[in-house]
TrEMBL record:
It is found in: Cytoplasm. NCBIfam families: xseA. The keyword Hydrolase applies. Pfam families: Exonuc_VII_L (PF02601), tRNA_anti_2 (PF13742). GO terms for molecular function: exodeoxyribonuclease VII activity; nucleic acid binding. GO terms for biological process: DNA catabolic process. It comes from Saccharopolyspora montiporae. InterPro entries: Exonuc_VII_L, Exonuc_VII_lsu_C, OB-fold_nuc-bd_dom. This is Exodeoxyribonuclease 7 large subunit. The gene is xseA. Bidirectionally degrades single-stranded DNA into large acid-insoluble oligonucleotides, which are then degraded further into small acid-soluble oligonucleotides.
Length: 408
């Protein structure tokens, strides 16, 4: 394969096919698991052709085996069966095709399927995909409900009819897909992604009727479980009947035991809501009436109070009290003033009695010596030698005198 080639020296097709065949034929035998989607075996032919598909992806592989191998299987192999095959990759040079030459085909039993589902259940649980904390509550009244189910199936009828009975105005976006077989998972994944991208879809319902473990196997597929867990829109799972419990039930945000339950879960009951609204209105009416009655009684009680029954009476009482206080204040002030006036008069009388004017009025005089403009009270005759100028102050004025030369 590493030999050089060029535009001038290209390899012929036979060489390329032969070298590819040589490389593939060096591969060893392998065990492969998948789902049979097509069986082609002509009557009397020695070779049978089958198509093996990956249940979780749009990938298939052609198988070839001896026709006697298929005829000897009990029960007979049918399309949709889960199998494990042993074979060797083979490249047919003449047609340029790859196939797996099978020498052993083993049907996967129910026990093995359940064991695999249980292992996957433990894995997803350990990753937290089943945790209640990550589950979201669907809206109370979704604008539009996405429904993924089989075409014209009983599950579709149950969801639509029960939802419309409860809320006639509900709108659905229905995606009909295969709900079992090899094409189920890819179609469901495509429908789920499409509805999850639609902004008007508020909740998505996965619905399917009951069936065997093999029939419900797509709803325990790992790829589907992870797609449901990462969806931005809340997902409601309604797969099978009450005993059925595929893995998608544990991953979905809400699990309903039947499609009928899903139809009742995604929308409210208009009759119940109308009744609830009526009850709330009645409670509001009673509460309002009770409040009005309490306020009316309070007003009646306020009216009966003296301040409201006779609003001028308290004012008049206050006026009388103010007038009494004013009178008391006036009397108190007058008494204080009278006392102060009497005390002042007594003090004035004492001052008058003790003052020089009263003494002068009794006939006394004050003699003052006038020297250089300075007045001095004369207290002794020795202080007034002859020729001393004097001023004699009496009660109504003053006279001036000069001390004569001889004193008598």
């Amino acid at each position: 394969m590493n030999s050089p080639t060029s535009a001038e020296e290209p390899w012929p097709v036979r060489t390329v096919s032969r070298k590819i065949a040589e490389w593939i034929h060096r591969l060893g035998s392998i065990w492969v698991e998948g789902q049979i989607t097509q069986i082609s075996m002509r009557k009397g032919a020695s070779t049978a052709f089958l198509t093996l598909r990956d249940p979780s992806a749009d990938v298939s592989l052609t198988l070839t085996c001896a026709a006697s191998l298929l005829r000897g299987m009990d029960p007979p192999l049918t399309e949709g069966s889960r199998v494990v095959v042993h074979g060797k990759p083979t490249f047919y040079v003449g047609r340029g095709t790859l196939s797996l030459r099978v020498d052993d085909i083993r049907a996967v039993g129910v026990g093995e399927l359940l064991a695999r589902i249980e292992r996957l259940r433990q894995l997803l649980k350990a990753e937290g995909l089943f945790d209640a904390a990550r589950k979201r509550e669907p809206p109370f009244l979704p604008a539009r409900v996405g429904l993924i189910t089989g075409r014209a199936s009983a599950a579709e009828h149950d969801v639509l009819s029960n939802a419309r009975l409860r809320w006639p105005a509900v709108r659905f976006e229905v995606r009909n897909v295969a709900v079992q077989g090899s094409s189920a998972v890819p179609q469901i994944l495509e429908a789920l992604q499409e509805l999850d991208r639609a902004p008007e879809v508020d909740v998505i319902v996965l619905a399917r009727g009951g069936g065997s473990v093999e029939d419900l196997l797509p709803f325990s597929d790992e790829a589907l479980c992870r797609a449901v867990s990462t969806a931005r829109t809340p997902v409601v799972s309604a797969i099978g009947h009450e005993p059925d419990s595929p893995l998608v039930d544990h991953v979905a945000d809400v699990r309903c035991s039947t499609p009928t339950g899903a139809g009742k879960r995604v929308v409210p009951d208009v009759a119940e809501e109308g009744q609830r609204i009526g009850q709330l209105r009645e409670r509001a009416r009673r509460a309002l009436h009770g409040w009005v009655d309490r306020e009316r009684r309070l007003l009646d009680a306020l009216r009966t109070r003296p301040s409201l029954a006779d609003p001028l009476g308290p004012l008049q009482q206050r006026e009388e009290q103010v007038e009494q206080l004013r009178e008391r204040s006036r009397r108190a002030v007058t008494a204080v003033l009278d006392g102060q006036q009497r005390e002042l008069a007594a003090t004035r009388s004492r001052l008058t009695t003790l003052g020089p004017a009263a003494t002068l009025a009794r006939g006394y005089a004050i003699v003052q010596r006038i020297e250089d403009g300075a007045d001095g009270v004369l207290r002794s005759v020795d202080d007034a030698p002859s020729g001393t100028r004097l001023r004699v102050r009496v009660t109504d004025g003053a006279v001036h005198a000069i001390v004569p030369d001889e004193q008598g």
